[in-house]
Amino acid sequence: MAYSIEVKSKIIERMKKEKIANISKDTGISVTTLYRWKKEEKIDGKEEKREIQKPKQEERKKYYEKQKEDFNFRQGYVIFKQKRYKDAKECFFKSINNKGKACNKSIFFIGKIYVIEKRYEEARKEFEKCIEIDENDKYARLELGRLYVIEKRYEEARKEFEKYIEIDRDKNPHARLELGRLYVIEKRY
Predict the structure, then answer these.
(1) What is the C-alpha to C-alpha distance for residues 141 and 164, in angstroms, rounded to an integer?
(2) 103-131: b or e for each residue (b if 16 or more CB lie within 10 Å)?
(3) DSSP state of 100
């Protein structure tokens, strides 16, 4: 069925206001035909081809990949809170693909799981990765300092707590508390 230019322009105007799927149901025109008409819309007797904005495949891939990472991190966090550390660690490993915020948090929680499992060398490596990705990651510094205290490396622990205080600008008492505990251990009253 052939449509006149007036009918086409009305349909195109309606396309702008409503979803294409609704128009194709009402008019019986296929979605591909509507796309073609949109491209070949006539304005002032001149044919003007318009590009239809479709999300690029790469952008869509990145978006869905990010959603997967976030989902895996959130799932891992919930499982971590349930103290099912082996399953949580698997979820955190799945969420690590590129250097993003969720990735850094996942590495941090993997380090915490290693501390719980008393695998201190691996935990230290994970916390150092966090700091390498983001130098201002105060929580990784705090956990690294606590780990140094466990390993009786007091000078390095003190440096990490002081860096935490410097980054945090003394808003959070955690590092001051840990620093106080360290001074008690060292008998520096």
Answers:
(1) 6
(2) bbbbbbbbbbbbbeeeeeeebbebbebbb
(3) S
Whole-prediction pTM = 0.63
Per-residue pLDDT of 134-175, as tens digits, reads: 888 889 999 999 999 999 999 999 999 989 988 888 787 888
Contact partners, residue 143, CB within 8 Å, separation at least 6 = 108, 111, 112, 115, 123, 127
Burial of 55 (0-12, 13-18, 19+ CB in 10 A): exposed
d(CA 61, CA 59): 5
14-19-21 Cα angle (round to 5): 110
> Tokens representing 98?
């590129």
Burial of 6 (0-12, 13-18, 19+ CB in 10 A): exposed
Element (H, E) at 122: helix 120-133
CA distance 62 to 57: 9
CA–CA gap between residue 156 and residue 176 (Å, rounded): 15
Cα distances (angstroms) measured from residue 9 to each of 30, 31, 165: 16, 15, 65
